[in-house]
Amino acid sequence: MIDNDRPSCAGPQAALAKLAAGWLQQHFSALPQTNMRQPNMTYIAAGLILAIATATTGCRNLGETKKFHRAGLATKSLSLDGVTRRYAIYVPEKPGATNLPLVFELHGGGVSIEDMTGESGYKTPYKLWMDLADSEKFIVVYPEGLNGAYGKPTWNDCRANASVNSGADDVQFISALIDLISAAHDIDPDSIYASGTSNGGLMTLRLAVELPDKIAAVAAVAAAMPDHSECRPPAQPISVLFMNGTNDNHLPYHGGILSNPPNPDHGSVYSTATSVAIWKAINHTDQIPVSCNFPDLDTKDGSTVTSYNYANGVKGKEVALYEVTGGGHSAPSIREQYSALFERYFNRQNHDIEMTTEVWKFFRGKNREHQQCFSKSRPPGLPHAATESAKIVHIPPPGW
Questions:
Q1: What DSSP line would sit under 195-245, residue for residue?
Q2: What are the C-alpha distances in Å from 98 to residues 102, 112, 119, 135?
């Protein structure tokens, strides 16, 4: 693995340090103890030692060691098995404390990292991660998948019956990024998270299955578990959040073939309820959720949001569902609202919650406090998710 932003320490500074060290050994050690010039030579020696320290420290700051924080947004690349992979990284201003959390945000199929960060000029809820990073002090990374069948970036998620995605080892890519960024920054290894939407959400679910030793929690937006999987069955508990619209016309809320119109080349998924149940079974969480009804801030967006939190799992693991009733194939946002043209193709975007804010609440210390909730008790009658989950809580569906 080669990082294009990590230069070598071999160079003029290292050579200067070696030369100065040799001079000190040759001259200063041979100086007589009674020589009246000894104080002056001591000052010279001290100056040379300082020069050595400056030279070697400057070299390390070019990328050899940690604690070199370059604030702001930068697009970088690394070479992995001979393939160049792109990613954008945002480091907050004055990060302060060491051991910063690390958040990955994975794009949907056909989306570039410039679209995610807002550099392309389009509306994007995902750029709001950078505002949160400044206030909450964590690092955000926007990795980019390789081109799939339609010539745009995709992720190789677990869908065995999909032919549109690239065949890249994207788990290896994310794992390599974790190692690379942890080597350059003070990352808390216990506070690494991944969020994604659509194809990116499906990829975060693959990370939950195959990289739980490095990632503490994942959030899958407009995504569900594939019903034909090339991955092994999930076995290790990890906290998982789903945020899905009931009127999603590209990833059906109740399961089935993806895309609009449905296209077998895009594979198929379980229902949202079954996906939640799979992770409830793995995490051994409560069967009855704590619910939260969010206020309908935008009565014209045609949707409302209710969250269900299944807590008290193995080692504190949780499963959460944000059910966006009437919502389409998009991340909810108050500040970054998509156009009418977007909604014509992907259905309605919810404007009652900020996806990034809610996902961060789930990530950071599993703080379940939600602002502006009408209630935190179970509503009359189980929601659809809880009804279906009760049927399969002990046995994951066939294919897993």
A1: EEETHHHHHHHHHHHH-TTT-SEEEEES---BSSBSSPPP-S--EEEEEEE
A2: 12, 31, 29, 15
| 299 Cα distance to chain centroid | 31
Q: Are strands 256-257 and 268-269 parallel, antiparallel or unpaired?
A: antiparallel
Q: What are phi and psi of 383, to 5 degrees?
A: -65, 165
Compute the C-alpha angle 109/325/261, nearest 5°. Answer: 40
Q: How far is CA 79 from CA 3, 221, 322, in A?
A: 7, 29, 37
CA neighbours within 13 Å on the CB side: how many for 218?
28
- What is the rounded CA–CA span in Å between residue 110 and residue 124? 14
pTM of the model: 0.79
Contact 271, 255 (CB under 8 A): yes
> d(Cα 118, Cα 306) in Å, to the nearest integer?
28
Residue indicated by tokens 């959400």? 201
CA dihedral 342, 347, 351, 353 (to 10 degrees): -110
**CB atoms inside a 10 Å sphere around CB 21:** 13
Round to the nearest angstrom and report the end-to-end CA distance of the chain: 32
Contact assessment for residue 282 and residue 203, using Cβ atoms and an 8 Å cutoff: no
Give the whole-angstrom CA distance, residue 236 versus residue 212. 7
Side chain identity at residue 315, one-letter code: K
Residue 123 to residues 115, 116, 118, 283, 351, Cα–Cα distance (Å): 8, 9, 7, 36, 13
Compute the C-alpha angle 126/173/77, nearest 5°. 70
Q: What is the mean pLDDT of each run of 10 residues along the chain (400 residues)?
A: 49 41 41 38 37 37 42 95 97 82 97 97 96 96 96 97 96 98 93 97 98 95 97 94 98 98 97 98 97 98 98 94 98 98 97 98 62 36 34 40
